[in-house]
Specification:
The complex is a heterodimer. Chain A is α/β, with parallel strands linked by helices. Helix content of chain A is about 30%, strand content about 25%. In chain A, β1 and β2 form a beta hairpin. The longest helix of chain A has 16 residues. The radius of gyration of chain A is 25 Å and the shape is globular. By secondary structure, chain B is an all-alpha fold. Chain B is built from 15 helices and 2 strands. In chain B, α2 runs parallel beside α9, α2 crosses α13 and α4 runs antiparallel to α12. The chains are: A alpha/beta, B mainly alpha.
Chain lengths: ~500, ~425
């Protein structure tokens, strides 16, 4: 009785140097909730971008068949036209416009360009009722919470006569209660006959609502599990089932005493003052130790690191930090740097580099006093420092005068690393140090990390790639929703254990 | 000379030659871009020299040119930092007008006794300028109010105060001669003049003005010292780079650059010396330009301003106090606006309500013609100075030619647009 509404056959999508998707197959039945799960970077979002036409027909290989017809989308407009609507993780609403204006943005009830506000608002009210949102259509988006904004997005999708609704991590930034309400809504839509695709990390949600689960790993479909076979254990095994080969440099840890310690660290959201983002985090790092923080996107790891580093994130920050047993003043970035803490950002282009300046100036920026006296820069000293670090971190560039904006991701990352190495930190926090860089550069970064640990530095690595954490760290903390939910020795850890700690919010204590 | 640390390939002499050629070519192209603006200025000057039948380079006109445009250049130095830092300041013309009015009131109207001494007044005015800069910078730096809005408000406020101070439409003057010397004075000839060609005497026994050739020797000596220092420091830096094993531009290029630069400088010095010597305001400007070149090129604070303009978030996460830095940039702008105001008042010999009106646009145009980026992070002091002179020479040349003021504006607008288009095009190509 159930017919196939969507079929994606042998989808292959390559970016320069990377195969993001290879022969992915996905088949969705009419009227079901189909979940897609996979690690960060597994290719879920890429697949959905192919489906919705963000990557237009011709930029990938394979076939998309929707309701029996092969489709060649040139853009989002084409896919929306036939009823495929995607709601992205980052909501696409205009904050200073009202709910009604947002829902009909670009699609207003109008004649000859004159908007019929009454019609818009009446229809909006009807749509809001459908999604169970009790708000005046005239309310500005900025005045309602994220959970309600999510519902507005769904109402907007409904206004487009949606046949297939795709939700990308819809509950990532929602509270437990809002998440439940959203899932209930999905089930309600299902009863009315709508088909949805749910992309989620949260396996408890998936096992609650999904009829079928497709697991994607490393750009391939691993399997599709029917409802009766869905269990968290089964999904986790399928998600992470990958062997560790020698992608990591060998190292012999020489671990000393605890030198860096964080106690009871709590942080509130910079705008939504009532939301606690980091909840009583405790952690420590020993001399020569590489400590990992595992977790999914939105777990609060970056927020934690940035709030430590000169209070660069959040407010109402409480807690204690000590280095060698002495309390540290980290109230500004310059104090943090002075106290020999360094933070290498996850987003090197936005927070790490001055892209319109060259390597030399970027490398010395965090430690200008190291190349100057009384405020006057010694050009020769700066030059030799830059060349020195270019050698040490193996930055491939024609000279230190190359603009960092023209470097590859891996080399940019090495410039950021060089900048912080030159600041001579004792504690180095690396946030997603290998995001978006190729395998060769990854190995080089791992080698640098190993060398720094051997020099006796305390290193914290935040990463969403679990194999990476298992491969390069000595101890792993697992963070979820702003809390440390597990701690384990790397030798004792496995991807399953980490995943379990995340999804169940309970971790095995380290021995 | 190579910066590579890896052992050089033993076999590749051909490689070395190629490498050398590459360096030479890249040095030439970067230099062309760097000096393109100066070349443009020279071409524009030669053009007007031709169309004004030789009036432009006359010593008296050169002195005029400097005196008319010095306040633009002075304010452009501050504006360069503001724009490099990623902001804009629309209030500089009004602040200059207000400071001129304040100075005139203090010197002429208010009974301040010894405090109406021009030196004291000038110092007070510079401090007031700093306070104005701090007041505007405070909102921009610590409350993140867009600089465009804060300084637009400042533009209205200080123009209003300027007019109110002067009591409506009237002007206040005359200002003391010792104050006017700031703009219209020339440095004293402590060495004594040197007459090369005695002036011709007419039938009545009087000398004919402008005939003969008498040189202002202090100017000549200062000019020679400056040129020698320029060549010496250029040479020393070059030697130092070579000693450390870093590639320097090819030697012939360096020599040509130094010789051409020196020759141009000496020509101008000679022209000034054959009139009444170096204008005081040119000396002030020269000192300020050198200072700002040094600050932007060699000092950590300069580096930090560029980093902030290039990527404020990254600068902040590198330990740079971007708020304080922003405040300082605007304080500097305030001081230079005040100095600009003093120069204007000194040149006019009185304070007028319209002093400096619209000059913020000339100042901003100078900085953009000089190659600064509206997005921040890019711009050179020398570029802004040359940009200022390009605007000045065009004003001056077209006035001598008798071009209507309305059309002068059109031409200046086109030059601004053209310069920026050229720059953007060049950058995209690179």
């Amino acid at each position: 009785m159930a017919s196939t509404i969507l079929e994606m056959r042998d989808i292959t999508k390559t970016f320069p140097g990377v195969k993001a998707l290879s022969n992915v197959n996905l088949s969705v039945e009419e009227g079901e909730i189909h979940a897609i799960v996979g690690e960060n970077g597994a290719g879920k979002s890429t697949l959905m971008k192919v489906l919705s036409g963000v990557y237009p027909s011709g930029t990938y290989d394979g076939q998309i068949v929707f309701r029996g017809q092969e489709c060649h989308f040139k853009g989002i407009h084409d896919s929306e036209h036939i009823g495929i609507v995607i709601i992205h993780q980052e909501l696409a609403l205009v904050p200073m416009l009202s709910i009604a204006e947002n829902i009909f943005l670009g699609n207003e009830h109008a004649s000859y360009g004159v908007i019929d506000w009454d019609a818009n608002e009446t229809r909006t009210a009807a749509l809001l009722k459908k999604v169970g949102l009790k708000e005046d259509p005239k309310t500005l988006i900025t005045n309602i919470g994220v959970g309600k904004q999510q519902l507005v997005e769904i109402a907007k999708a409904l206004s487009k006569e949606v046949k297939l609704l795709i939700l990308d991590e819809p509950t990532a930034s929602l509270s437990e209660k809002d998440s439940q309400a959203l899932l209930d809504l999905l089930l309600e839509f299902k009863r009315q006959g709508m088909t949805s695709i749910l992309i989620s990390h949260k396996l408890n949600e998936v096992s609650r609502v999904a009829d079928n689960v497709t697991v994607i790993r490393d750009g391939r479909t691993i399997e599709t599990l029917p409802r009766k076979d869905i269990s968290e254990d089964r999904i986790i095994t399928s998600m992470v089932g990958r062997s560790l080969d020698d992608r990591y440099p060998p190292r012999e840890p020489q671990i000393g005493e605890v030198i860096f310690e964080v106690k009871d660290w709590s942080v509130y959201h910079p705008i939504h003052a009532e939301r606690q983002v980091i909840k009583n985090v405790n952690l420590n790092v020993r001399k020569g130790e590489v400590v990992g923080i595992a977790g999914l996107m939105g777990a609060g790891r970056t927020e934690f690191a940035m709030s430590l580093f000169g209070r660069s994130y959040g407010r109402h920050i409480t807690g204690e930090v000590s280095l060698h047993g002495k309390p540290l003043d980290l109230s500004s970035v310059s104090k943090a740097v002075e106290n020999r803490i360094a933070y290498v950002t996850e987003d090197r282009k936005t927070y790490g580099l001055n892209l319109i300046d060259h390597i030399k100036h970027n490398v010395t920026l965090a430690n200008l006093s190291g190349v100057s006296s009384r405020g006057v820069i010694d050009d020769m000293r700066e030059m030799s420092v830059a060349n020195d670090y270019r050698k040490k971190t193996n930055i491939r560039a024609s000279s230190v005068y190359q603009l960092t904006g023209n470097l590859s991701g891996g080399n940019q990352q090495k410039v950021v690393l060089s900048k912080w190495l030159f600041a001579d930190p004792e504690v180095l926090i690396l946030d997603e140090p290998t995001r978006g860089i190729d395998v060769g550069a990854k190995y080089e970064i791992y080698t640098i990390i190993a060398r720094l640990a051997a020099e006796g530095k305390a290193i914290i690595v935040i990463s969403s790639e679990m194999p990476e954490l298992l491969g390069i760290t000595d101890r792993i903390y697992v963070m979820n929703e702003g809390r440390i939910v597990g701690e384990m020795a790397a030798s004792d850890a496995s991807q399953e254990k980490i995943m379990r700690a995340i999804v169940r919010g309970e971790g095995k204590k380290a021995s | 000379m190579s910066t590579e640390s890896a052992p050089a390939p033993q076999s590749g002499t051909a490689e070395d030659v190629k490498q050398g050629q590459r360096i030479a070519v890249s040095a030439l192209t970067t230099n062309l871009r760097e000096y393109g603006l100066i070349i443009a200025l020279i071409v524009i000057m030669l053009f007007f020299q031709y169309t004004t039948s030789g009036t432009l380079f006359k010593p008296v006109n050169l002195s005029n040119l400097v005196q008319q445009n010095s306040f633009i250049i002075v304010m452009a130095l501050g504006m360069l930092l503001v724009i490099v830092a990623g902001y804009i300041d629309l209030s500089v013309g009004s602040v200059a007008g207000f400071i001129g009015a304040l100075a005139a009131m203090m010197m002429v109207i208010w009974p301040l006794g010894i405090f109406s001494n021009p030196l004291v007044v000038s110092i007070v005015c510079l401090i007031v300028g700093a306070l104005i800069g701090a007041a505007q910078g405070y909102w921009i730096a610590y409350h993140k109010i867009p600089s465009f809005i804060v300084t637009l408000a400042g533009m209205l406020i200080f123009r209003g105060i300027c007019q109110a101070l002067l009591g409506g439409g009237s002007s206040v003057g005359p200002l003391p001669a010792s104050f006017k010397a700031l703009s219209s004075g020339f440095i004293p000839d402590v060495i004594g003049p040197l007459t090369l060609i005695p002036p011709t005497v007419n039938a009545a026994g009087k000398t004919i003005v402008g005939s003969g050739l008498t040189l202002h020797m202090t100017t000549i000596v200062l000019g020679l010292v400056a040129v020698l220092a320029y060549a010496y420091f250029g040479f020393r830096t070059r030697r130092k780079r070579e000693r450390h094993g870093y590639e320097a531009e090819p030697f012939p290029l360096f020599v040509i650059k130094t010789l051409v630069g020196s020759a141009l400088a000496l020509f101008l010095v000679f022209q000034f010396a054959s009139y009444r010597g170096l204008p005081v305001v040119l000396l002030v400007m020269g000192v300020l330009i050198s200072l700002f070149v040094f600050v932007t090129k060699r000092m950590t604070i300069g580096r930090r301003i560029y980093a902030m303009g290039g990527n404020a978030k990254a600068a902040q996460l590198s330990g740079i106090n971007t708020e304080r830095l922003t405040l300082m940039v605007f304080i500097n702008m305030g001081v230079l606006s005040a100095l600009g105001g003093l120069i204007i008042a000194a040149r006019l010999g009185q304070a007028v309500p319209a002093a400096g009106l619209g000059s913020e646009l000339d100042v901003i145009a100078a900085v953009f013609i000089g190659g600064a980026s509206a997005m921040g992070g890019v711009g050179q002091v020398i570029g802004a100075v040359v940009g200022g002179f390009i605007m000045g020479v065009m004003n001056n040349g077209m006035s001598i030619m008798g071009v209507n003021v309305d059309w002068q504006q059109v031409v200046k607008g086109l030059v601004l647009l053209g310069a920026v288009i050229f720059d953007v095009y060049n950058k995209n190509k690179a």
